[in-house]
Amino acid sequence: MPKDGDSLRTWKGSVLNYIMHGLESGPLLFVLIDPDKQGAKKAGEMAKIAQKSGAHAIMVGGSTGLTRNTVRNTVIAIKSECSLPVILFPRSAECLVGEADAVFFMSLLNSRNRNKIIGEQVKGAPLVKKLGIEPLPMGYIIVEPGMAVGEVGEAEVIKRENVEEAVAYALAAEYLGMKFVYLEAGSGAPEPVPPDMIKAVGDAVSIPVIVGGGITTPERAKGALDAGADIIVVGTAAEKNIDILRSMASMTSASVYK
Questions:
Q1: Residue 53 and residue 244: Cα distance in Å, rounded?
Q2: Which of 25, 82, 115, 213 is most buried when burial is the number of CB atoms within 10 A of its CB?
Q3: Residue 27 CA: distances (Å) to CA of 43, 209, 226
Q4: Domain of 36: which CATH number?
């Protein structure tokens, strides 16, 4: 991770390479900032603290209420305060902006709505190319309870005890050529993705496993990492108490890029 104030030379050119290089030394911590939950200036301040705490990348996105201008202003503010890669986590093609470094080009695999699986991706692909944003192909899988993203995404959420179904979806993502698989319990979930599900998916696939939703304490972060998560995503917890990021980061490869 670049030290505060460093140039982007350690990762510029490929965010994917940056992530993969980091994973060679251990798991990573990404911080998700939702432009709908605070102004752009506050988002920039959060990103600065996240970098100093040891996070490895900033994700920008949310399930509701976003416009292209809101996302753009947030990304610009983040990049003015933070030298970490900024990765879009878009709910739709409307949230794509060229100021970001990369985009999780994701398919919500267990949605009932074709538009969430491939429709928005078809709309967004020409824009990704035009803007020159690096696409990071990802299979997105919603796990119970799913919260707002499960509802908005019209997901057939995977039951917490249905480990086999989660593994099957993750394998499908890998075999379709996706570079990441994301197990998502939903922002603000009362419980994170079960450790046995994380372990089973991690054992089954050879691509990095991202886990998010309900990781609100260092203990829950440790549980996900011990189960084999390659990347943990913290959002709501950082919004409420960004100071906990330091303890979470200490469990990951916080010194990889120093």
A1: 9
A2: 213
A3: 24, 10, 10
A4: 3.20.20.390
Domain count within the chain: 1
**What global pTM score does this model have?**
0.92
CA distance 157 to 147: 10
Q: Where in the sequence is the domain holding 220, given as residue range(s)?
A: 27-249
Q: What φ, ψ does residue 13 adopt, rounded to 5°? A: 120, -35
CB within 8 A of 185, min separation 6: which ones? Answer: 143, 144, 145, 146, 147, 191, 192, 193, 212, 213, 214
164-201, pLDDT tens digit by residue? 999 999 999 999 999 999 999 998 899 999 999 999 99
Beta-carbon contacts of 178 under 8 Å, excluding residues fewer than 6 positions away, are: 107, 137, 138, 139, 207
Nearest partner of 77 among 118, 45, 36, judged by Cα: 45
